[in-house]
Amino acid sequence: MTLTRLTSLALGLALLVTACDSRPADDGPPLESGEAQTNGDTAADLAAAQNRWADTGITTYHYEAFLDMEDENTSESRCGAGGALVVQVIDGVATMARDKLGACVIELSDPQRPPLTVDEWLAFIDSVIVDAGDVTELGARFDERGVPVEVFMDSSTGFVDGGIRELTVGLIANLPRELLLKEMHKARALWETTKPTSYRFQVGVQCLCAEEHRGPFDVLVQDGVVVEALLKGRAAPAGAPDDYFTVAGLFAAVDRFAFSDGITVDYDPDFGFPAIIDADPERNSIDDELRIVARAFQEVTD
């Protein structure tokens, strides 16, 4: 297994999922380790787990997870160490993956993202058994539903040990947030099927900030990269809110504010991008409200 694959696995192991009641995973027996290529027990356990998971029929769930990892580049996870990652899965599709503070947001459309659903994780473990690379030890423990509640891997580049902290069937228990996640998933899917290679639009921000940071900014994006950002015909000043200068950045903002005390989002009906984002991170804080407006969207064909 290459370092890149192990590092991706390290992030993904923080996202081990389950679908059950809200009790934490039981301690269970310790993991068995051995040559990954010949770990017959893990392979047999995986096959049985896949059958048990399929029998549950559970498709909507959310969870928190922890991660312990080390490789030749880093001694700890950059995303989700200490059980901070929160993932929502709706109808078998991951709709959100982020830490509680919003410092880490996993881009769901990224083809290199780690496994996020139970089915993805079972398939990934199976792929490691089939092609272990330089993995020398592999162990996995599955609960009564077939969910991998603990996975340990060791290779020449480091180790990964991950598991579940809190797990709940259904949607996150906050109706506005549930609706937000459903709407965001549908809007993102629309954007992925309609997004042009290049586009222009205006982005404005209403906040307690310097006037020159509010816009509106005229932005040109090509292949997902900002190539021009103007304010009144001149280059956008330093400190401009360039995190919002692409549609990907707007979706990332929705992800980041998903756990705000208050958030509403309006999506463009034709392309699906977030057209208006109203966020109030903390109701008891003064002047932290934020509104992001994206308008005058045009596909660029020249």
Describe this entry's structure for a reader.
This protein is α+β, with helices and mostly antiparallel strands and 302 residues long. The chain folds into two domains: 167 residues, no CATH class; 125 residues, no CATH class. Helices cover 24% and strands 33% of the residues. The protein is elongated, with a radius of gyration of 21 Å.
Tell me the β content.
Answer: 25-35%
Structural domain tally: 2
Tally of helical segments:
5
Helix-strand topology string: HHEEEHEEEHEEEEHEEE
Low-confidence stretches: 1-8, 10-39, 73-78
Summed up, what is this model?
The protein has 302 residues and is of the alpha+beta class. It has two domains: 3-169, no CATH class; 175-299, no CATH class. It has helices at residues 3-13, 40-56, 118-130, 175-194, 247-256; strands at residues 61-71, 85-90, 93-99, 135-142, 148-155, 158-169, 198-206, 217-222, 225-231, 234-235, 262-267, 274-280, 290-299.
Provide the fold topology.
Layout: H1 3-13, H2 40-56, E1 61-71, E2 85-90, E3 93-99, H3 118-130, E4 135-142, E5 148-155, E6 158-169, H4 175-194, E7 198-206, E8 217-222, E9 225-231, E10 234-235, H5 247-256, E11 262-267, E12 274-280, E13 290-299
Antiparallel strand pairs: 1-2, 1-6, 2-3, 4-5, 5-6, 7-8, 7-13, 8-9, 9-10, 11-12, 12-13
Helix pairs in contact: 2-3
Structural descriptors:
single chain, 302 residues, alpha+beta, 2 domains, seven-stranded antiparallel beta sheet, six-stranded antiparallel beta sheet, 5 helices, 24% helix, elongated
